Every structure is written in C-alpha cells, then in structure tokens.
Amino acid sequence: MASRLSFANITALAPMVRVGTLPMRLLALDYGADVVYCEELIDIKMAQCRRVENEVLQTVDFVAPDDRVMFRTCEKEKQRVVFQMGTADPDRALAVARLVEKDVAAIDVNMGCPKEYSTKGGMGAALLSDPDKIEAILRKLVSGVSVPVTCKIRILPSLEDTLTLARRIEKTGVAAVAVHGRFKDERPRHPVHCDYIGAVARAVAVPVIANGGSLDLVKTHGDIQAFRVAAGASSVMLARAAMWNPSVFRSAGPLPLHDVMIQYLKYALRYDNHAFNSKYCLCQMLRDKVESALGKRVQAAQNNQELSEAFDLVGVFEETQAALEARRDALQSPERLRDHVIAVDGDVTTMALKFQRREYPPQLTPKMFLLEWSRRQKLEQPTYQTVQRAQDRAFQSTVTVENRKYRSSLWEKSKKFAEQASAVVCLRARGIPESHVGQENGGRPHKRKTEDGRDVGQEKRTKQTGDGERETGGS
Length: 475
Ligand code: FNR
What we know:
CATH architecture of the largest domain: Alpha-Beta Barrel
Strand content: 15-25%
Bound molecules: ligand FNR
Oligomer: single chain
C-alpha cells in the first residue's frame, strides 16, 4: 500500500484554474515540485462526472454528462496530485472526494478564492466567515476518505482571528493548511504578509504551506528557501512563479522559457490536452512576449497541430498522433474486443471502439451482419437511436437488440459511422462471429442484402429504424 502523502518540507505547485491541468502538473513534477495541486473543481460539476479509464491515453478521466473531461490524471502523478475542490456542502464534498480518492494523493478544499463566482455560492473565501461550515466540511472529509485532507485559506484582518481559525481547522484532523498570506480584499500585486503565515505556523502543529510569494519574493529555486524561512513555514506553494516558468522548481536553476514551453507542449500532445487550454498556459508563460511573432502564432492557433507548427514540433505531433492511433487500433482489434466488454453504463453495454471500414468487405457492414443475425434468431430488427453533441457535432448511437442496448463510448464524425460502431459493440459483446454471418453463403460474405435487408443495388439508403428518434444537440 502506498504511503500517505506528507506535506512537511515540500514545495508544491499551487492550485490554479485553467493552469493546473495535467501537462502543467507533470512538468512541475519533472522540474522538482514535490506535490502538485489541480485547478479548483466545483463539487456540483464533479458530482455529475463519471470515472472513465481512458485506455488509449492511459489516463483516468472524470467526464461530465456533456462529455467534457473535467479532471484527467495518470499513474505518474498518482502519489503526488492533490485534488482541490470548491464546495460549501459537506455531503457533496464527501461524494466528490469518494469519487476521486482512489486516483489522487490528497483532497484539498479551497477557502481562499475571493472571486464572486465562488463566494456567491458560499464557497472559497466566503467560507472564512463561516467557521462552522469549514469544520463540518473538513470533519466529514477527514472521516470519510482514506487519503489526507488539507485546506487552503487566506488570512483574516485580525491576527488573533486568523490563529483561532487555524487552530479550529487543525482540530478537524487535516494533514496540512496552506496559507495564502493576503487578506480577502487584497489583490495579487499587494505584498504578502509573511508575519501572519509565520504566526499560524507557530500556532499549529500540522505543516503550514506558505503561499503568496511569487511576485516579490520568489523568482528562482534559491528564493523558495528564502520564502520558507521568511514565512517561518514548513513548506512552500507557488502559483504565478510556476505559471510563468514551471522550471522555477529546478534546483539547478530555471531553464530557458522556450525549452520549457516545448516540454509543456509535448505533454499536452501526449495527453490530448484541449488545445485552448494549452494555448492559455503557453500565453501565460509568454507573458509580456505574447505579442512577439511566436506569441501571435500561439494566439492564432486553433488546434494542437497549429500549436505544434508554432514551435516547429510537427514531427512530434505526427509521431504522437501515430502512437495514439496505433494504441487505439490495438485496443480495438477484434481478438481483444471479442471478450472485452469495457463497461456497463447504466443498462447500456459499452466498448471504446470506432468503426473501421477496412475491417469489413466492400458493401458489407456490421449493421448488415447484425440484421442478418437477428433475422436468423427470429428477433425483432435492431433499432438505432443517435444523438449529436453540441460542442463538436459528433454522433453516438445506441442499438437495441432483444431489449438490450449497446453503444461505443467513442463519438464518430458521422451518424452512419456511429450506428456502425454501435453494431460492432453489439456483435462483439454478444460474441456473434461477424465472419460467420456471411460465410453461410458458400464461405463468402453475403452481398445480396443491405443493412435494411434490401437487395444491394436498390436506391442507396432508406430511413433506418430509429432515425426519427434522433435527438440533436443532446447532452
Ligand atoms: C489562482 N489561485 C487559485 N487558488 C486556489 O486555491 N484555487 C484555484 O483554482 C486558483 N486559481 C488561480 C488561477 C490563477 C491563474 C492564479 C494566478 C491564481 C491563487 C493561487 O493559488 C495563489 O494563492 C496566489 O496566486 C498567490 O500565490 P503566488 O502567485 O504569489 O505564488
């Protein structure tokens, strides 16, 4: 069993919305961060997510009902990643913590965000004025999950109140407290109050993680130790200094920014990070150079390929794509899939596969095989229901056979392919030998029938059963 993550004497990548996604976290770890926090994720959104093992990327994804990946993590960071949530509800916080606890090293609650979207829901810095709520959330989490629980606070206007709050937090059983040494109303440009952080560190026995030193105190790795000493804390957490150049964690000194951006992009490609998120992070690193020739290309990029072109990484982009494609193919080989039902999602059997035209003889498709098989079994004709999602207009079909539903978890570019993919899932999940269906015709595949059972050669397509049921813009 893995040991519990310790927060004593560590240097951490701070939680940062949009910045703290997987590529940045892995890069920070490579450069020497001991612990990496994910961006704050709101409990209501996370509670709707399902956990998906992404076999192609070798990641664990927490996927929202609209198929957006809210949180992606991988084995490499499992012992080091802290999941930070925004919450104002102990029960919901626990439900989310339980959803992710097997895949992360610790759970953190954000109690410092002063932004309205957070405070108006009673989350973030709003919690600072509701210590009963803080206590209820933390106690529930500490007793309800097996990983360490921490929280990140800002300081209160009175030092005495800050210390009282810190002591109360400590009593809940948290493993550490991160203290951003600014008052709720102070902006990031204001100097950090190291004296408050130090007083908290002296008042509690759990490790205190000093935060807030990026602007005026921490520029290089050497400054991290100076900040730790100035704040009198066990540990240090960096946000902006790491966002501007994550190699700030390197004990041998920071690397040239261009090299760092290239390493960032390689991780972003490898883990299929959303191009707009990668672009945002690269722009943060470029900072005042965002209007340079490179900055303009990054800003103009609309996808990962264009980002790669801006950094002369087209070769890496193509290699990464080919490697992922090969993995996808290997995962979808009929031999592997025949006995390999990936998941049962509600009452639907799902597999992660795409329809590969080249695996079928010309003019024959999985839908035709399935129809032919259903007829021989004297079953009702399979029915297909297709949905299209708004964000990329991709399609997903569910086929119903004998009152059982089958679908591919991978979305297709066309409705036609989505239906074929669902038919393949049904054939493989039920172990229906696709080749046999056709081989009763003298060892050759049937070429007479279309998937509707009509003769090939008639007009190309008629309305498929279930077409009328299609929902668009669903989920
Ligand atoms: C933040 N911060 C922040 N804090 C938090 O608890 N959860 C979050 O999701 C975010 N998001 C976030 C995004 C960005 C872009 C920045 C710059 C900051 C605050 C951050 O963790 C830290 O407390 C402050 O930035 C102060 O630390 P530095 O920057 O002086 O090291």
